Amino acid sequence: MKALQCIELGGPEKLVVNEIADPIIADDHVIIEVKSASVNFPDVLMIQGLYQFQPPLPFIPGGESAGVITELGKGVEGFNIGDKVFAATGVGGICEKILAHKNNVRHIPDDMDFEIAAALSVTYGTSIYALKQRANLRAGETLLVLGASGGVGLATVQLGKAMGARVIAAASTQEKVDICIENGADEGFIYPSGNLDRDQQKELSNKIKELTGGMGPNVIYDPVGGTYAEPCLRSIAWDGRYLVIGFAAGADQIPKMPLNLTLLKGCQIVGVFWGAWTGMFPEENQKNFEELFEMYKNGKIDPSPSDKFTLDTAADAIAHLKDRKAKGKVVINL
Ligand SMILES: NC(=O)c1ccc[n+]([C@@H]2O[C@H](COP(=O)([O-])OP(=O)(O)OC[C@H]3O[C@@H](n4cnc5c(N)ncnc54)[C@H](OP(=O)(O)O)[C@@H]3O)[C@@H](O)[C@H]2O)c1
Predict the structure, then answer these.
(1) What CATH code is carried by the domain that includes residue 41?
(2) Is 189 near ligand 1, meaning CB less than 6 Å away?
(3) What's the pLDDT tens digit per position in 143-153?
(4) If you write DSSP's letter for every residue of 31-88 in order, what string do you get?
(5) CB of 211 closer than 6 A to ligand 1?
(6) What pLDDT does residue 183 have?
């Protein structure tokens, strides 16, 4: 089969499409003929050796995919050959056939196509968990989303609206802010790109307070980190929940927060690690997916991908995220 492979660590330009052996079926696993796969920021980090979980070289990037089951291992129940499924495997998705553990595989609802199913798991799975289980977001609360036009960001804008929040989207260009407004954000603003100096940080904090009538957002969703984090926390409301999602601004710039802010604001800094939680609480994760399917059916969320690539151009899909060009979800059709 053909697969995108990372054979040495580095940028997307080092990735190659190779002909490799088909996967062999194993107990408790299925083999899926992949129709669509999607890209997330962890792929950018993993190919550079910067992610918290590093597969041994060579590996196939791509944390999620969708397709048709072609083989069933012993111990697999509830699935048949020919079933349309999607899988969140963390790695190994950008190839023609993937071996996936049964616990990571779900049926695709009848009203959903492969591209959407491939784009749903990581972004919407993370964001519903973050807003529901971690932040207890309530209708009428204000939600600020950083990096709001990216994969998890745009999913959060849509989910925040579906959950009845007032959503403020923050992104680095007007085009990105406009996409967030089209996706339901009540308001949006541009923040500067790169390392913010003290004055820019103060401006960011003031802007957020201004947009929230001086009260600050109840929940802040932060997949960016870097120098954006502290000024955002400084603007949070009393009893606010600051969701630590990721560090797209750079794994070498993980923010360090003054703890007195949590005391002064009676707020919480809440870590979100969806992948680990899904392993510990699979039933709750399944309930979240059922809610997502319902929201999709009722038109409350739209996981349609914004950019599409092929297996031959899959490295460009990863470069797209690395170069801060992604607007919503990026998929690869095989
Ligand atoms: N905690 C979890 O369970 C979990 C699950 C999934 C993903 N994540 C994390 O969430 C983060 C975002 O993932 P994603 O897949 O949504 O990525 P994405 O689509 O590339 O979005 C990331 C956003 O971050 C912003 N950004 C700021 N500085 C950047 C930089 N130097 N390079 C690239 N983007 C930058 C960009 O928006 P602007 O240009 O508008 O600033 C971009 O839209 C990653 O750190 C990922 O590891 C965490």
Answers:
(1) 3.90.180.10
(2) no
(3) 999 999 999 99
(4) EEEEEEEEE-HHHHHHTTT-SSS-PPSSB---SEEEEEEEEE-TT--S--TT-EEEEE
(5) no
(6) 96
